[in-house]
Amino acid sequence: MSAHAVIEAPTSCAVLPVVGSDTLVPLVDGRSVPYANLDVAASAPALQVVADRVNEVLPLYASVHRGAGYLSQVSTALYEAARQTIGAFVGAREDDVTIVTRNTTDSLNLLAGCVPVQADGSPGRVLVLDVEHHANLLPWQRTGGATVLVGGATVAETLSGLRAELARFPYALVAVTGAANGTGESRPLAAGGAAAHDAGARVLLDGAQLVPHRGVSLAASDVDYVAFSGHKTYAPFGAGALVGRRDWLDSGTPYLAGGGAVRNVTLDGTTWQSAPARHEAGSPNVIGAVALASACDALAALEPGELVAHETELRARLVEGLEAIDGVRVVRAWADAVDPVGVVTFSVDGSDAGLVAAYLSAEHGIGVRDGRFCAHPLLARLGFPAGAIRASIGVGTTGEEIDRLVTALRTWVSEGAKARYEVVDGCWVVSDDPRPLLQVAGLSGLFATAAAGNITAAVGCGPAPA
User: Fold this and answer.
1) Which of 146, 167, 178, 382 has the most CB atoms lying inside 10 A of its own CB?
2) What Cα–Cα distance (Å) separates residue 5 from each residue in 214, 222, 304, 309, 339?
3) How far apart are CA 290 and CA 81, in angstroms?
4) Which of 303, 116, 287, 111 is nearest to 207 (CA)?
5) Nearest CA to 297 among 97, 94, 85, 91?
6) Average pLDDT, the chain
7) Which residues contact 55 (CB under 8 A, 6 or more apart)?
8) Could you tell me the pTM of the whole model?
9) d(C-alpha 183, C-alpha 401), whole Å
10) Known catalytic residue at 374
11) Which of 114, 296, 374, 461 is catalytic?
12) The dihedral sign for the CA sequence 239, 55, 47, 91
């Protein structure tokens, strides 16, 4: 898939069919409408071809790698073929390793244990920006070798600050986002990567948002490592990937201690495998890996530039609609950012972000994300410590869904909500919600789990604690 080619006649129809695109959800007025899923940046629905592939291979599932049975051999072949497909999708070089993980967070925690220590035994230095989401911030902070650089008002200013910091100390790794989780904005990979390599550092690309929207090539970009998630890449079956240079992964601390990661075990010690097995202890997620590989194949098969054109058209349509509404402001990190992916964050003057999101769901059947998007430092720096609202576009998004969101926000500003809302366990909900639950086994209430565990403060429904 080409990242920059342009389709002459973009369309506002879905690019690929996704599971659940025709799901009806109830509104507080008693109607049911098709769900408008504008929260794909958090977790994207499964592509229909991915779901079909999972159904195809489930009867073939068995133990992997050490099973003598026929289906064990089939499952092993499926898993290893998926590994090759996943690596190829992100342009893996001949000597690169593809490790199947759970998600981007898992991948970056794994890599954090592989960064070589300094000559004095202290943690290897890692440079990150404050625009990173928590998956690409917390693992480095925990190792003790992280320096967090505050981004500038522009991409150019941020790159200048990056070069200056790289000149101050010898860094082992520069960990950067491909597209910001909070705003969808990206930076020129070539410029940032060249600055890091010129200073003797390697480059880790957090591809959680970039890979499913634009694609990445390690070989073409000369990035050293990329991490991404299946659940954001239309394969929400519990797999992600870390792909990159072998030497650190072969010598780094095994991510999990257990079977499959070892060559030999005695009571006196353990001899570990090289990567990827070194970091894949336990029974691997065969179905998740196959699902992710299927999604990679489907995205790679799109016409060059088709996905970019789709997202560019719908994003522009959304931004134009939002900026035409009094009191609605689009949140941007950089004034000169180019080629943003299909993620748009905004605020509504005088309105709590969680309340607006609850209104959009209950009265219009629209799903968006509210809060701080696992990017607390960035939202605080941009002036939104209590959070904002994020709408995100994917292969299944249509122009009608974008128009529904804009119309609903215009109604909110001019007329307000029809239903009554209150805060329960930190989240806005409809008072005496009349909507019936969908008939799903084990579901007794929309907020039953959250209320029982009181987890809403942890997941970020409310503003930052005082």
Assistant:
1) 178
2) 11, 20, 6, 9, 12
3) 8
4) 111
5) 85
6) 90
7) none
8) 0.91
9) 19
10) yes
11) 374
12) positive
